[in-house]
Amino acid sequence: MAFGIKRDELESWKQGVDSGKISFLTHYWVDNRFPGCNTVTKVGCNDLTKLETWGKQYGLQREWMDLRGNYPHFDLFGERQRDILQREGHLAQLNKLQNKKA
Q1: CB atoms near residue 34 (< 10 Å)
Q2: Alpha carbon distance 44, 50 (integer Å)
Q3: Residue 44, by phi and psi: left (phi above 0), alpha (psi -120 to 50) or beta?
């Protein structure tokens, strides 16, 4: 279940994915399969080759792409999420959610 994002943030992410950009969207997320993780970052792009190439630099495998629906993406969480967001200059998205919890 996703929550903690505004409609305009979601629409902006979708537009980025649709236009072939590597786009980031971080939101709260609850899934009992991943205890201790309460946020996820979706890194999407409709150009699968571009998304695969982007992911390889972080050790992400093509098989890990979520290809269901209209917005292909990788799901990032935990330490990998923080590391990649920091390296990509998007750590503020994660920090915003973590600061709201306090």
Answers
A1: 13
A2: 10
A3: beta
Total number of domains constituting the chain:
1
In the structure encoding, which two tokens stand for residue 8, read together?
Answer: 């305009």
Could you tell me the sign of the dihedral formed by the alpha carbons of 52, 20, 39, 34, in that order? negative
Bridge partners (DSSP) listed for residue 26: 41
The amino acid at residue 47 is: D
**Domain span at 52:** 2-101
pLDDT in tens, 47-59: 999 999 999 999 9
For 16-75, the DSSP string reads: HHHTT--EEEEEEE--TTSTT--EEEEEE-S-HHHHHHHHHTTT--GGG-B-STT--EEE
CA distance 82 to 85: 5
pLDDT in tens, 23-74: 999 998 878 888 888 889 999 999 999 999 999 999 999 999 999 999 999 9
